[in-house]
Amino acid sequence: MRPSGRAADEMRAITVQTGFTKHAEGSVLIGFGDTKVLVTASVEERVPPFMRGKGEGWVTAEYSMLPRATHTRGSREAAKGKQSGRTQEIQRLIGRSLRAVTDLKKLGERQITLDCDVIQADGGTRTASISGAWIALRLAVQGLLDSGAIKEDPLTRKVAAISCGIHQGTPVLDLDYIEDSSADADANFVLIEGGHIAEVQATAEGATYDEEGLLRLLRLARIGCAEIFAAQDKAVAR
Amino acid sequence: MRPSGRAADEMRAITVQTGFTKHAEGSVLIGFGDTKVLVTASVEERVPPFMRGKGEGWVTAEYSMLPRATHTRGSREAAKGKQSGRTQEIQRLIGRSLRAVTDLKKLGERQITLDCDVIQADGGTRTASISGAWIALRLAVQGLLDSGAIKEDPLTRKVAAISCGIHQGTPVLDLDYIEDSSADADANFVLIEGGHIAEVQATAEGATYDEEGLLRLLRLARIGCAEIFAAQDKAVAR
Amino acid sequence: MRPSGRAADEMRAITVQTGFTKHAEGSVLIGFGDTKVLVTASVEERVPPFMRGKGEGWVTAEYSMLPRATHTRGSREAAKGKQSGRTQEIQRLIGRSLRAVTDLKKLGERQITLDCDVIQADGGTRTASISGAWIALRLAVQGLLDSGAIKEDPLTRKVAAISCGIHQGTPVLDLDYIEDSSADADANFVLIEGGHIAEVQATAEGATYDEEGLLRLLRLARIGCAEIFAAQDKAVAR
Amino acid sequence: MRPSGRAADEMRAITVQTGFTKHAEGSVLIGFGDTKVLVTASVEERVPPFMRGKGEGWVTAEYSMLPRATHTRGSREAAKGKQSGRTQEIQRLIGRSLRAVTDLKKLGERQITLDCDVIQADGGTRTASISGAWIALRLAVQGLLDSGAIKEDPLTRKVAAISCGIHQGTPVLDLDYIEDSSADADANFVLIEGGHIAEVQATAEGATYDEEGLLRLLRLARIGCAEIFAAQDKAVAR
Amino acid sequence: MRPSGRAADEMRAITVQTGFTKHAEGSVLIGFGDTKVLVTASVEERVPPFMRGKGEGWVTAEYSMLPRATHTRGSREAAKGKQSGRTQEIQRLIGRSLRAVTDLKKLGERQITLDCDVIQADGGTRTASISGAWIALRLAVQGLLDSGAIKEDPLTRKVAAISCGIHQGTPVLDLDYIEDSSADADANFVLIEGGHIAEVQATAEGATYDEEGLLRLLRLARIGCAEIFAAQDKAVAR
Amino acid sequence: MRPSGRAADEMRAITVQTGFTKHAEGSVLIGFGDTKVLVTASVEERVPPFMRGKGEGWVTAEYSMLPRATHTRGSREAAKGKQSGRTQEIQRLIGRSLRAVTDLKKLGERQITLDCDVIQADGGTRTASISGAWIALRLAVQGLLDSGAIKEDPLTRKVAAISCGIHQGTPVLDLDYIEDSSADADANFVLIEGGHIAEVQATAEGATYDEEGLLRLLRLARIGCAEIFAAQDKAVAR
């Protein structure tokens, strides 16, 4: 029995509110249960130094937790003067995941930055960030297409992410904070619609798992991502 | 005529949504028109080193803009590795304003931190922050009173803040971004209910004003704060 | 009775020693009683990035306390690796105050930096800095006019600053350290000759004041600034 | 055909030189072909603040590349003043991997730090680091057992890591730099002897893979780790 | 012929103004010609962590140039967020030089910090700093003896420093900025009265010198330090 | 009697292994007894900003200790976020020493960086670094000559460095860690073949020395450097 009463393969409610802020080219407040992340997509007509002159664009991400997104207040990274290793690891993951479905040539020499700011945390902030970032990116790209700034859609597949884990011996989908704190193993899957894997990050500090265990988690992830893909479709439908 | 069509002494709509996040001891999403600030109050049972052993508490604030709260994306302070002078100036102002209405002795040896994170900016982010921070602080203090952690209410007066300025020669109340960018002079007033002044920060880069001009702005500020005090009362009514 | 024996509207002795250092285009050691600030004006034939290509100049300021300017040694900001919020707030104020009396177009595409280094502190370091910075700026601008680098004087009015406060219930002028530490309220006024206000920064951590109190402090500030304007005139007379 | 002429399931030569430096409680220079990493294990009789008073120990890791370990010189992180996100991600991975095989209670209240400094890089620096770190840790723990500082061996299983990837459509084992730069997908596996998985980090920026692809990479990883386990056994045999 | 018209073994005028600031336990404005350094000695009743519990004191130094001490404005280290290598090298040298004449046991468990702030630079700022720091330290120690805080004088010898160099083939004493910029070799000597050497830092980027050259510079340094010792005696005479 | 049993004028064994890493244009693992430093020379076809457009090259150095090069683990400078004063002082010394024997005009507009990473420390790390850096630089320059990138050899003399000190009253050559920790005085000499002095850094925290003492140390240094010059010759012989 899961602490939340959910079935092993049951996601939390996915909530999506597009246009949550007005300045960004794309913005969404995405919720996986009590985890709430505000994602904005910002289009800038320049690329970072290492991409200049290639005729291609760039997609990148930044991630942050508001200090009191969590049960007890964490210190503000801007005040400490540096981003934690965890923050950097997550924002690199988000960027890679979005680039996995973006044709940078078709984007043209411009950058889209996905800012993922966690308003409230209850487990799964990185997977909600990736899933929401696709929506914000899609909205921003749609704007570029509508205005004629780009001719061909650089974003033809969806990407979503979900965490799975082994909790009290049972593989479960979409861990909340209570499960995450006591899970024997924890895996984040970034999947692309059509069945492909973009990223797997599976960790077992306490227990370990074998090949069969990994596959069971992957199959749960497919169930979860199918539900996220549907929510993404609905959010960007015109 | 103001760009927004408002009268000279007309505030933007004040919106208040308490309990916007669930972990904080007090939380509010406050809006002054399109300016939206999420304020959380976090209670910690310790005080900063310079207050230890005095039998008193402390109230402090941190302030930040989400990178895409603004028209164009600003760089993230956590990524740059330092807070700007503007950020530090604002968070010091918020802290002083709240301490002006808090009896630190009655608070006991604990700290309350007000985190003010600007979700969307359209002028007046510091005044919305102060006005919202009072609500979050009030909610957190109420919790301490309800639980018996403190016996006497350390917070017996309300504090609110509003900006005024001289726009095209006319003193106006509650500047939005368009007015703020082109104002001849700009003043932020922090007022305490009952007519007292806690802080004045008046600046004139372009024009300057005289004693009479300062008083006209102060009178507008009284009008605006009266409206904010009413919204605060409504927000914390039980 | 004030601790120093001064009358309520009595300034400390203002001392001005121009040419205190030889390399700077303008330099002055200004004293408000025991508060001593060395201000240098440095002219550079370039402007910061945000001003490039506008055909205008820029005036900016930096502020620092020597570690043992104060009663007990403070840590050196260069050793700590960052400037405090207080330092940044003050140097922003100094820069704005000087720009309030400078016609940046007439200055041409060059920058003048006012470095205000507090040699000894006894209250009022920011107001002495502003008042002295005008002298250093005036001397540097005079050099540019004399050499023909600029044709029209970009600096046609004087600016000065003074602190006032309510000490034991009485509004007093030019607070020294003892008064400042125990004042109920503290206000810094930056005034321009001719009666205009450039900046007001009024704070009341303990008590608060009302409109009448603010005006009484402003009137004291006028008295103090008149004396500073006279000292400035004398210092730059040729 | 692989650029190196190796078979798809063929590792590079593993070289192990224990006792490479004399001060550390354990030290090894490990090579996976031209990738050379110096790993030292340092025992300290204290634990980090978050572990104090629990009666348990801690195992952590730091990772760095010498500036000219690579084809072109990279900037020195100490000179830049911060560690990159990649560095932090890798050192967190190394630490977790070693903790997965360490019984922290049996270690007692002390910390062992694994410093992994890449002397020469040719792909697979993080996997060589983990594999070498186990040897250094084993040597340090043996010293603690020999001296009687600890009674029971906290380290009863081996851990090793290897990268696999899809290169020109073929799954291959132990990617060198040339393969890594052009791989369609890249996965790092951290395996524990006995067939268990401690960590999987699989990334596909260009292509993606499906379940079958992931399993093929995992099977290659088992082949590689078997070879590393043998080299580890030989290195620590007494 | 030297640019200044001085003889090869002729010092610039040494000026000493003790009590330049009022808060420090010892303070002096020392001048070697146009080089002016303000040195303050601050006594604190605590020692740094590495000296705790030894029953000994510590003497340390910090050094800084005001941004416009030099011909062209240098950037402020506090604003840049770090001290340059040159700054750190000099402050370490000053600290070592003063400790060479201090009996730390007799000082008792307290720290004296010598802050050397260069007001105006014209070559020889580190040697003026050391020579002035001895005066400030002597004054602070005298205060400790007078108050009875310490019983025995920990400072029984004087220390002074001077630069020498080879300028256009001729060994010269006390280089000013013009000579320093074009010198073939440059050496700083820290000497203790009675003929002993505390430190030699001799550098030859352009030319080099031989044993005889080094000795000629050392002999010039003796002449210069004799003059500084006399000035120190006069400054601290009661 | 020296702790190591060496004669007063006896060097530790000098070991030199060129080509220790494969990517660098020059690389060497140099040992002075148990002190082992890896030095790489990296050629880059650009110069730092202050050298641009002069048609000259630049030679610079960076220095670091691996955290466990020493008896007890030191913290990693990259993790602390800054280089210590000692590190900066040493890398400045290495750079100056190499530039003393390099004709920057003949090098052409390119930079050579000498990275000196201490693998194991037992005293004399800076002198081993300088002595090894010359070898790495020589190898890199030889590559530039061989490829025709430069026409004339910019490096016509050798430079070497050695420490000497007064240990228990006796002047001794090439101090190891035990001697260094207890030496009365310590001097590092950087000598150029042919008898010239490039740098002297002589320090006496405890005792002091006189002219005769300095000369005796210099003469020991000549003995040591002669031996290093021979080792350098042998290392770069083709």
From TrEMBL, chains A, B, C, D, E, F:
<protein>
    <recommendedName>
        <fullName>Ribonuclease PH</fullName>
        <ecNumber>2.7.7.56</ecNumber>
    </recommendedName>
</protein>
<dbReference type="InterPro" id="IPR020568">
    <property type="entry name" value="Ribosomal_Su5_D2-typ_SF"/>
</dbReference>
<dbReference type="GO" id="GO:0008033">
    <property type="term" value="P:tRNA processing"/>
</dbReference>
<dbReference type="InterPro" id="IPR018336">
    <property type="entry name" value="RNase_PH_CS"/>
</dbReference>
<keyword id="KW-0548">Nucleotidyltransferase</keyword>
<keyword id="KW-0808">Transferase</keyword>
<comment type="subunit">
    <text>Homohexameric ring arranged as a trimer of dimers.</text>
</comment>
<dbReference type="InterPro" id="IPR001247">
    <property type="entry name" value="ExoRNase_PH_dom1"/>
</dbReference>
<dbReference type="GO" id="GO:0000049">
    <property type="term" value="F:tRNA binding"/>
</dbReference>
<feature type="domain" description="Exoribonuclease phosphorolytic">
    <location>
        <begin position="159"/>
        <end position="222"/>
    </location>
</feature>
<feature type="domain" description="Exoribonuclease phosphorolytic">
    <location>
        <begin position="10"/>
        <end position="140"/>
    </location>
</feature>
<dbReference type="InterPro" id="IPR027408">
    <property type="entry name" value="PNPase/RNase_PH_dom_sf"/>
</dbReference>
<dbReference type="InterPro" id="IPR002381">
    <property type="entry name" value="RNase_PH_bac-type"/>
</dbReference>
<comment type="function">
    <text>Phosphorolytic 3'-5' exoribonuclease that plays an important role in tRNA 3'-end maturation. Removes nucleotide residues following the 3'-CCA terminus of tRNAs; can also add nucleotides to the ends of RNA molecules by using nucleoside diphosphates as substrates, but this may not be physiologically important. Probably plays a role in initiation of 16S rRNA degradation (leading to ribosome degradation) during starvation.</text>
</comment>
<dbReference type="GO" id="GO:0016075">
    <property type="term" value="P:rRNA catabolic process"/>
</dbReference>
<dbReference type="Pfam" id="PF01138">
    <property type="entry name" value="RNase_PH"/>
</dbReference>
<dbReference type="Pfam" id="PF03725">
    <property type="entry name" value="RNase_PH_C"/>
</dbReference>
<feature type="binding site">
    <location>
        <position position="86"/>
    </location>
    <ligand>
        <name>phosphate</name>
    </ligand>
</feature>
<keyword id="KW-0820">tRNA-binding</keyword>
<keyword id="KW-0819">tRNA processing</keyword>
<dbReference type="InterPro" id="IPR015847">
    <property type="entry name" value="ExoRNase_PH_dom2"/>
</dbReference>
<dbReference type="GO" id="GO:0009022">
    <property type="term" value="F:tRNA nucleotidyltransferase activity"/>
</dbReference>
<dbReference type="InterPro" id="IPR050080">
    <property type="entry name" value="RNase_PH"/>
</dbReference>
<dbReference type="InterPro" id="IPR036345">
    <property type="entry name" value="ExoRNase_PH_dom2_sf"/>
</dbReference>
<comment type="similarity">
    <text>Belongs to the RNase PH family.</text>
</comment>
<dbReference type="GO" id="GO:0000175">
    <property type="term" value="F:3'-5'-RNA exonuclease activity"/>
</dbReference>
<feature type="binding site">
    <location>
        <begin position="124"/>
        <end position="126"/>
    </location>
    <ligand>
        <name>phosphate</name>
    </ligand>
</feature>
<keyword id="KW-0694">RNA-binding</keyword>
<keyword id="KW-0698">rRNA processing</keyword>
<dbReference type="GO" id="GO:0031125">
    <property type="term" value="P:rRNA 3'-end processing"/>
</dbReference>
